[in-house]
Amino acid sequence: MPRFIALIPAAGTGSRMNNELPKQYLSLAGKPMIYHALHTLCHSSHIFRVFVILAPDDHEWNRYDWSSFADKLVVKYCGGATRADSVLNGLKAMQQTDGSIVKDDWILVHDAARPCLTIFQLDQLIDALALDEVGGLLAIPVADTLKRADLNQRVMGTESRNGLWQAQTPQMFRLGLLMDALSKVNSAAITDDASAIEALGLDPRLVLSDAYNFKVTYPQDLALAELILQKKETN
Ligand SMILES: Nc1ccn([C@@H]2O[C@H](COP(=O)(O)OP(=O)(O)OP(=O)(O)O)[C@@H](O)[C@H]2O)c(=O)n1
Ligand SMILES: C[C@](O)(CO)[C@H](O)COP(=O)(O)O
Known about the structure:
By secondary structure, this protein is α/β, with parallel strands linked by helices. It has one domain (4-234): Alpha-Beta Complex (Spore Coat Polysaccharide Biosynthesis Protein SpsA, Chain A). The protein contains 6 helices and 11 strands. Strands 5-4-1-6-10-7-11 form a 7-stranded mixed sheet, sandwiched between helices. The chain has a two-stranded antiparallel sheet with strand order 2-3. Strands 8-9 form a two-stranded antiparallel ribbon. A hairpin with a 2-residue loop joins strand 2 (27-28) and strand 3. The model has no long low-confidence stretch (mean pLDDT 97). Bound molecules: cytidine-5'-triphosphate and ligand LQXTBERG. The ligand C[C@](O)(CO)[C@H](O)COP(=O)(O)O binds at residues 83, 111, 167-169, 191-192, 215.
């Protein structure tokens, strides 16, 4: 039976967050941001192992106690210049670390910067895709009216939102397929794993998620993530 293995790329600098500390370590509900995604993934009964991919020069990780995740957690200092490079390096390191991981195993790539992922969303993704030929991702249909802007930030036109979805993570593909896809693509030209699969001519499935699983990108996102995490704790 194929297994489910999570990979968290966490080698980014968080440039849009404007903070000296890489955003995955910023404090959220009393813990470094990455703790929350790790907690959800490590507590899922489906997930066999969780790989965290850090920058080679990361000096923050070892400042914290991660022992509560020890039974599933593997940490690798092999992040690359882009998210796609970090994921591909992580997949290679995963194979070198554990020879029992095979190309048919499912990989769930999840951003360290999406701390509000729930077990429910994770289960929805796995249930929808476990028998899928290609794999897919959590996503939400675009809810707002879309404007195209000119260089002066004036509206050039209104775009149709019909059929448009916002991609989230986890993005779930089989190890062999994902490695093949990421090895062939220009890593600087893509921002998610599904794009690499699409470049092979395949059609990843969109699995309905919700806005709570948003990506913490700008400073003002921290307060919203904190509220969602507090709500999760009281439920
Ligand atoms: N070279 C990189 C770039 C990004 N990431 C990871 O990919 C996820 C999503 O990327 P994003 O939110 O864009 O994070 P950053 O690249 O850190 O942020 P920014 O684009 O604002 O610099 C994050 O968990 C980030 O740490 C990574 O592992 N390696
Ligand atoms: C993978 C991702 O979170 C899906 O929305 C997103 O593409 C990451 O993109 P970013 O430009 O690196 O934030």
